[in-house]
Structure formats: structure tokens, C-alpha cells
Amino acid sequence: MHPFLEGVSPLAVALGGDVVGPGELADGDIPLHFCGELVGGYRPAGLQGALDRLINQIEREFGCALTDLDRQRKQDVVRRLDELGAFTLRKAVEDIADRLQVSRFTIYNYLNAHD
């Protein structure tokens, strides 16, 4: 694997996508060039698993598991997930409530609190 692709691979994983070699490029892939040479590509992820990726991103940002947060930090998590568009995904309220170990009603209260 080209060193540039090794360097961007953690970013691709964090975004839920894949790094592919130049011979594996398909429609929809983003070509990656290094010093004018095509060295591979980035294959974006679909919506499958998008909410899990967002929640994992938030856990990295907050530095701990969501269940370890106090009430104020959980409100901050809900606000951040709302900014990222998480609540546009089907069943997001239920899934986020489960991950935060709170009720759906609590999630709606958190969302209404910062409107």
C-alpha cells in the first residue's frame, strides 16, 4: 500500500469508508493523488451504520463512553448529535436513548431545551 494511503486510512475508517488501490476504483470512489500520481481512492460509506459512526465520533470527542456522562454532558451529547444531523436518521431517538441509558422522553426534553 502506498504510504499516502496508509496515512489517510485512519481517516477513512473514522468516516466509515474504505481506502482502495488504484486498480480497484469504481464509480463513486474519490480518486487520491500524491505528487500528481493516482495512488488509490476513498470509497465513501453508505448510510448503513451512520448513526453508530456518529455516536463513536461523539465518544471520541467526549473521551468516554456515553453511559459514563452526567446529565449536563448527556445534554451536550444530544446537542452535538443534533448539530451533526443524527436525528434525521430513522429510529435515532430510540437508539441514542439506549446508548445514553435514558428514555426517549428525556431525549426529546434535551432537544427542546436547546431550541
Please render the helix and strand layout as text.
Blueprint: H1 3-14, E1 18-20, E2 30-34, E3 37-43, H2 50-62, H3 71-83, H4 92-100, H5 104-113
Antiparallel strand pairs: 1-3, 2-3
Total beta strands:
3
Overall mean pLDDT: 92
* Silhouette: elongated
What structural class do the secondary elements suggest?
alpha+beta
Low-confidence stretches: none
Question: Reading side by side through the largest sheet, how are the strands ordered?
Answer: 1-3-2
The count of domains is: 2
Summarize the biggest pleated sheet.
Answer: 3 strands, antiparallel
Amino-to-carboxy terminus distance: 47 Å
Query: What is the element string, with H for helices and E for strands?
Result: HEEEHHHH
Determine the fraction of residues in helical runs and give it as a percent range. Answer: 40-55%
Helix tally equals: 5
Which percent band covers the strand fraction?
5-15%
User: Radius of gyration, rounded?
Assistant: 18 Å
Overview of this structure, please?
By secondary structure, the protein is of the alpha+beta class. It folds into two domains: 3-43, no CATH class; 50-113. Helices cover 50% and strands 13% of the residues. It is built from five helices and three strands. The chain has a three-stranded antiparallel beta sheet with strand order 1-3-2. A hairpin with a 2-residue loop joins strand 2 (30-34) and strand 3.
